[in-house]
Amino acid sequence: MATLTLENVDKHYPGGIRAVDDFSLEVADGELIVLVGPSGCGKTTTLRMIAGLEPVSRGTISIDGRVVNELHPKDRDVAMVFQHFTLYPHMSVAANMAFGLKLRRIGRAEIARRVDEAAEVLGLGGLLSRRPSQLSGGQRQRAALGRAIVRQPKLFLFDEPLSNLDASLRGQMRQEIRRIHARLGTTTVYVTHDQVEAMTLGQRIAVMHQGRIQQVADPMALYDRPANRFVASLIGSPPMNFFEGRIERRDGRLVFVAAAAPESTAGGEVRPLMLPVPAVWTARVEPYIGKPITLGIRPEHIGGTTAEQTPDAARIPAVVEAVEPVGAESYVYWTMGVQTFVSRAPAGRGVEPGETGEPAVASDHVQFFDPETEQTVGNPCT
Prior knowledge:
Helices cover about 25% and strands about 30% of the residues. It has about 375 residues and is α+β, with helices and mostly antiparallel strands. The chain folds into 2 domains: about 5-235, Rossmann fold, CATH 3.40.50.300; about 240-370, CATH 2.40.50.140. A 6-stranded mixed β-sheet has the order 6-7-8-3-9-10, sandwiched between helices. A hairpin with a 2-residue loop joins strand 4 and strand 5. Helix 3 packs across helix 4 (about 135-150). The radius of gyration is 25 Å and the shape is elongated. The chain starts with a strand and ends in a 13-residue tail after the last strand.
């Protein structure tokens, strides 16, 4: 196991392309950390710099306190699992797993021991004599993991290893990777664009956007306390709803008033959303009185049971646009003038497209963002 430290790391390409910008991160010994973000945000480039497959333009990368910028990939003691898990088709599973060890001239007895141990961890004991063509997609991915595990490296690097699997296999393999990490305890950096994968796997998550880290935190801290609008919109499915408006003082208290909608709903006048500012936000939004501000509300905090049972809950006058049943719950898509938003509700609520309604808001769970900086209000970066 090992610690990993990246300090002020940049990656520039010809033409002024900046793939990674001032990236700093510390990964603890035995930690599983996930880099998540949209395509092109620099997460795979960062992983490749850690592995030594891409040179660093600026900054340092250290493993166990030793700067490895100039070390050849084979000397960094890392094992990488790629998105396309290529196995040698003419070799058995055992031979595929052992191939890298043979190149390092490890003894036969030691190779056999490591392959058997990895096969036990991965549940491949009865498949070692098979060739890749005789395996399912999930089994081939486990064989690729086994090839990394037998190396017994200081670091595991995963580059979107599940993206080519179907949904059920992805769920199964997520659990496999969590189990393997719990058993081996090897320091792991895992790259994905899938926020569900990030939330279920990561002990901590580093959210990336345009080459920069936006926030590093444990999964629920990211979800409950996003640092900015980008993090709030990336983490969560369906994503957070955003309402533009302003803060006003009414009857001695602060109220968020949504911007007036230029269109009417169901032929009538639109009443804007008016939401009393929760006490925990009062001091933070006070500087925005009379100024633009963005309100964020997650779908489960609109129209949910708790909100609906609160007598004085703020309500959003709107029309049902569409309903998506997804098993035990439904996603209800609403329009309020030109504003659209989505709520999560228990299945069987009985709402139909075209109906008018006033779903309640669980105001204790709202977020406020500066419309210019897009930082969470009260953040030091705002």
